[in-house]
Specification:
alpha+beta, 3-stranded antiparallel sheet, 3 helices
Length: about 140
Amino acid sequence: MNAIAARRQHGIALLEVMLAIVILGIGLLGTVGLQARAYSALSDAGMRAEATLAAEKLIGVINADLPNIAQYNLAEGATPNTQLAAWATETRRNIPGATLSVQVQDQPAQNRYQVDISIRWQRKARSEQNRHRVTSYIAR
């Protein structure tokens, strides 16, 4: 009877090892998936940071050049003028495929200008577009 029970146990260790490998493989696939999502989120955060830095830089430039503030308007998709060319080139280098827009509105009643800067980009094909918009008020 002992020999029959021992014979039934042959191969059980191999079955346990195969089951452990399957479970480990599923865990590793889940980890790889999480890593890919984390990389994607990190890339999006990096682009948002670049857009924030670009907008803040332009606001500083505009603030230092108030006599020419009307020259800083840029329609979305338009070619930037000489005031905006360097900023647009740098922004597009840091955010590939960026679409830029700048609107400067005079608000004489409040004795200020409103500056709206919009930067749009698409990280990958078939993904939704990201838009970063900054509104700043510059005193006269």
